[in-house]
Amino acid sequence: MTTKLEPISLFKALSDKIRLSIILLLHVEKELCVCEFSEALDEIQPKISRNLALLKTAGLVVNRRQGQWIYYSINDELPQWALNTLSETYSGNQQYIEQALAKLNKIGEHEARPMLLCESK
Asked: Domain residues for 22?
């Protein structure tokens, strides 16, 4: 079942630099936890959490709990036009999150990062 999403809701949700970066990171990484976003975007956890909540309310992201961590991913029930928009936005703007991805990759493999990042906080 496809989520009902109005274009204005999508573009309003993506009109903030942090939220756009979060969505683009999720487009590449598929799933990330709050501490990974915080590290990659050099933002404090409450600010990341607030922006994730806005994206979740808009229906763009979903989350799941695994142990003590909450992982976020792009809602796979988004309409195709919205998924296409996200894909095209990333394709034409990969440099927008290039540094953030480099930070994450420097830390380690995707599966190990939450343990390395979240445990130290």
From this structure: 7-106
69-88 residue pLDDT tens: 889 999 999 999 999 999 99
**CA gap 24, 66 in Å, rounded:** 22
Find residue 71's DSSP bridge partners.
Answer: 33, 64
What is the C-alpha to C-alpha distance for residues 105 and 103, in angstroms, rounded to an integer? 6
Residue 21 CA to residue 9 CA, distance in Å, equals 17
Q: How far is C-alpha 47 from the chain's CA centre?
A: 13
Nearest to 111 by CA among 29, 56, 49, 51: 29
Token pair, residue 120, equals: 């130290």
Q: Which helix (H) or strand (E) holds 70?
A: strand 69-74
- What's the predicted TM-score (pTM) here? 0.89
Number of domains in the chain: 1
Residue 118 burial (CB count, 10 A): 17
Beta bridge partners of 63: 72
Domain of 81: which CATH number?
A: 1.10.10.10
